[in-house]
Write a structure and sequence with these properties.
Blueprint: E1 13-16, E2 19-22, E3 25-27, E4 33-35, E5 38-41, E6 47-49, H1 57-67, E7 75-77, H2 83-86, H3 89-95, E8 100-103, H4 105-111, E9 122-124, E10 130-132, E11 137-141, E12 153-156, E13 161-163, H5 184-198, H6 207-218, E14 224-227, E15 230-234, H7 236-245, H8 259-271
Parallel strand pairs: 6-7, 7-8, 8-9, 13-14
Antiparallel strand pairs: 1-2, 2-5, 3-4, 5-6, 10-11, 11-12, 12-13, 14-15
Bound molecules: fe (ii) ion (2 copies).
Length: 273
């Protein structure tokens, strides 16, 4: 059965108390699938963390509303304005009339290339800002790697869940909810691939400065890493993930697929008739 014919449907899954990943997976031949996740934090003032891809809008809204009443959603935290994180933002603002968007000045400017976001529904939340949302505080922090200058990760001080945005991205072979189900080499290779894809400038990094930034994030009392492109990371795999991202300044760049690869793919598709 080809990738296009397989069913990759995933149900929302629990990452921690009152914290649910809204998953979707996207075929990325020949390296399997990439998760495209967002997150819901329930509680006194529920939060949507990122808004998924427009390609899965209907199922995304259905999945979000299966874990939280949309009228109760008080905050929408947008990690950055890339389409796979912001794709359903307007739909989310319309479906969640009581939600305020946690964004930044720069992000709003970039979103304005296409969308007008009502300013009276926005609140700026920059790297280092902390927001008290009743039963917990949430913290915006720059993740170790990112592919948009607007990116802030989000840390929930109550559960210890980190939303890493594009950091700790990995390809997977099957839809997965828990990185513990990846073999050791698949976890390592996936983390190193994802890190290099997100941060192709990794050979330019000053190792000491980069490690200091990684340490700042790792110093958080993290119980689980969730993110846009990874199954949940828990237990010893958290330290392993940080250890792998620290290798980015010294590992070789990933070799892009080239025209020869594309020609082979097209020939393979044509041979299927
Ligand atoms: Fe991104
Ligand atoms: Fe992303």
């Amino acid at each position: 059965m080809s990738t296009a014919q397989r069913d990759f449907t995933m149900e929302p899954y629990r990452a921690a108390d009152d914290t649910f990943v809204i998953p979707w997976v996207y075929p990325t031949p020949p390296i399997g699938l990439f998760p495209i996740n967002s997150l819901v934090i329930r509680g006194t003032e529920p939060v949507l963390v990122d808004t998924g891809s427009p390609a899965c809008r209907e199922v995304w809204l259905t999945n979000v509303s299966s874990v939280v009443d949309l009228d109760d959603v008080r905050w929408i935290f947008l990690s950055h304005d890339d389409r796979d994180h912001s794709g359903n933002l307007l739909a989310a603002l319309a479906a969640c009339p009581n939600a305020t968007l946690l964004t930044t000045w720069y992000m709003l400017g970039r979103l304005a290339e296409e969308w007008t976001i009502p300013l009276n529904r926005c609140r700026f939340m920059n790297d280092g800002d902390v927001l008290d949302i009743g039963d917990r505080r949430i913290v915006a922090i720059r993740p170790p790697v990112f592919d948009s200058p607007t990116t802030r990760a989000l840390f929930d001080e109550r559960t210890g869940v980190l939303w890493s945005a594009d950091a700790f991205a990995t390809n997977v072979r099957e839809p997965l909810a828990d990185s513990a189900d990846l073999a050791a080499d698949a976890f390592r290779d996936g983390q190193l691939l994802g890190g290099r894809l997100v941060a192709p400038w990794h050979p330019l990094l000053d190792e000491d400065k980069f490690h200091a930034q990684v340490q700042k994030v790792q110093d958080l009392p993290i119980t689980a890493i969730t993110g846009g492109h990874t199954p949940a990371i828990r237990g010893p795999r958290i330290e392993e993930a940080f250890s792998l991202v620290r290798q980015l300044p010294v590992i070789k760049p990933w070799r892009e697929f080239n025209q020869r690869t594309l020609d082979l793919w097209m020939a393979a598709i044509a041979s299927l008739g």
